[in-house]
Amino acid sequence: MISIRKIGREDLPELNGLYEELTGHKSNEAKLASVFESVEYNDNYILLGAFQDDILAGSLMGIICQDFVGECKSFMVIENVVVASRFRRQGVGRVLMQEIERAAREKIVLISFLYRAGSGRRRISSTKS
Known about the structure:
This protein is α+β, with helices and mostly antiparallel strands and 129 residues long. The protein contains three helices and six strands, in the order E-H-H-E-E-E-H-E-E. The protein has one domain (2-127): 3-Layer(aba) Sandwich (Aminopeptidase).
């Protein structure tokens, strides 16, 4: 069963392995740790991991941004979405996206993003009352 939780410092080596699958090369470990420390307690960054039996199966990062247009509502950008090759096609990405959507609804006024759901794409847009 997949469980979702925030990525911790102890998960960085596995996370770096996932990023290697995403980009084809590992991140600089010292810089990765430094950047992680700079955002670890910043509520505008949500770094989630999907774990199966304590193995990091996938990850994504949600970043809450402030808009300067129109009603100047906050929005979320989702970056670095990756699922380990051996866990693909098992719903890991879908569960991660559902959890980041739930977190976004709790934290921001407006969310709008596209993600793959089944065979097509779905647009999610919501305002907080």
